[in-house]
Amino acid sequence: MGTLDGKRVAILATDGVEEVELTQPRQAVIDAGAAVEIVSLDTAAIRSMNSDIAPSAAYPVDRAAADANAADYDALILPGGTVNADRLRLDDDARKLVSDMMSAGKPVAAICHAPWTLVEADLVKGRTLTSFPSLRTDIRNAGGNAVDQEVVIDGNLVTSRDPDDLPAFCAAIVREFAAT
Questions:
Q1: Topology of 8-178 in CATH?
Q2: Where are the domains positioned within the chain?
Q3: How far is residue 110 from each of residues 6, 68, 78, 130, measured CA to CA in Å?
């Protein structure tokens, strides 16, 4: 019996998602027993990248963000990738899903460039989080406390800096998702 049996986890991603930041957290929560859906800007398959520059695999999408409802999920994962995060932060439906999950007190996990969506959705004010170094000024400008740590947990928000942090990030999200 897994620690996440019966839990439903959404992964919000689009083209340009950093592949390991999509696949490793997804596998960690699946291995713990969660059912996972990939949510994107539409239902077309998304193309992942390696190190933001090398195209990688395509992944099927289960639901468009416009059709996703926070009530359908127990937790949300926001993988990074510069292009992915930049596209998501500009999308009203993506921001709404993230806001609704945070407002409901459900765990949200963001790694690398993913906190851009949190910044754009006005969700970092008064929170402590980490990210890829180039986002830290954005986080501070949005009223957040940006720190340089492997994993930061602030209430229902779990953040990490980059792919090197994936082992700790994956362990933290499984633990935090199980606690809800």
A1: Rossmann fold (3.40.50)
A2: 8-178
A3: 22, 18, 5, 9
Parallel, antiparallel or unpaired: strands 157-160 and 151-154: antiparallel
Dist. CA 44–CA 47, nearest whole Å: 10
Which active-site residues does the annotation give? 112-113
140-178: b (≥16 Cβ within 10 Å) or e: eebebbbeeebbbbbebbbbbbbbebbeebbebbbebbb
Largest CA distance in the chain: 44
**Cα atoms in the 13 Å half-sphere on the side-chain side of 179:** 15
The pTM of this model reads 0.98
Beta strand pairing status for 54-59 and 35-40?
unpaired
Query: Do the Cβ atoms of 16 and 87 come closer than 8 Å?
Result: yes
Q: pLDDT digit of tens for each residue in the chain (180 aa)?
A: 579 999 999 999 999 999 999 999 999 999 999 999 999 999 999 999 999 999 999 999 999 999 999 999 999 999 999 999 999 999 999 999 999 999 999 999 999 999 999 999 999 999 999 999 999 999 999 999 999 999 999 999 999 999 999 999 999 999 999 998
Residues 164, 169, 170, 171: what is their CA dihedral angle, to the nearest 10 degrees?
120
Q: Please, where are the H alpha helices in the chain?
A: 19-31, 82-89, 92-103, 115-120, 136-141, 166-178
